[in-house]
Structures are given as structure tokens and as C-alpha cells.
Design brief:
By secondary structure, the chain is mostly helical. The chain contains six helices and no strands. The protein starts with a helix and ends with a helix.
């Protein structure tokens, strides 16, 4: 059960990392991008999520971990709505629901 908690943590960190990368993408030019702290925060979070992924893969089957990582899509949708003020359409919700349903079917 602890490993499923780690998967939730890993997927959340990956989604938050993407938000920081999105913020960094607004930099004008390559040099300003390299100076943008959001790039490094996002990179750190991605590396930390990858480390958690490696730990989880030691104890759970890859055929379970990878489909469950689709929870990232849920976090991404919520964060894009709350933090980035993006519009969430019914079509996007249906798409994510299909992905998650498919992951559950594979993982169970």
C-alpha cells in the first residue's frame, strides 16, 4: 500500500514539475531560459519523481506502475485549471477519464 502512495506522490511531483516548465517556457531567449529558476525547480522535481519511480519499480511490476502513472493526467488537469487558469472542457475530462479507465483495466 505504501508503494501506491509513492506512485501518487511521484505523479503529483511530475505534474507540478510540468507547471514550472510551463512558467519557464515564457522566457525570452535561450539565455534567459537558463537563468529562469522555474526551469531548475521543474528539473529537480522531475529527477525526484524519477528516483521515486525507480524505488517503486523495485517492488511492483512494471505492468502495474506504468499504467498507474497515468494519474499524472488528473493532476495536470487540476493544476492547469487552478494555477494556470486554463479552460477544462468536457472533451478533455472525457479523454482523461478514458486514459485512467484504461490504466485501471490494465493494472487490476
Amino acid at each position: 500500500m505504501m508503494y501506491f502512495g509513492l506512485i501518487l506522490c511521484m505523479t503529483f511531483m511530475g505534474a507540478v514539475a510540468s507547471v514550472f516548465f510551463k512558467r519557464a517556457s515564457g522566457s525570452d531567449g535561450f539565455f534567459k531560459l537558463l537563468m529562469n529558476v522555474n526551469l531548475y525547480i521543474g528539473g529537480f522535481l522531475y529527477v525526484a519523481a524519477a528516483a521515486i519511480n525507480i524505488v517503486v519499480l523495485r517492488y511492483l511490476d512494471y505492468s502495474v506502475v506504468l499504467p498507474l502513472s497515468s494519474v499524472t493526467y488528473i493532476w495536470t488537469m487540476v493544476l492547469s485549471y487552478v494555477i494556470l487558469q486554463e479552460t477544462i472542457t468536457k472533451k478533455k475530462i472525457l479523454g482523461v477519464a478514458c486514459i485512467v479507465l484504461g490504466a485501471v483495466c490494465v493494472a487490476v
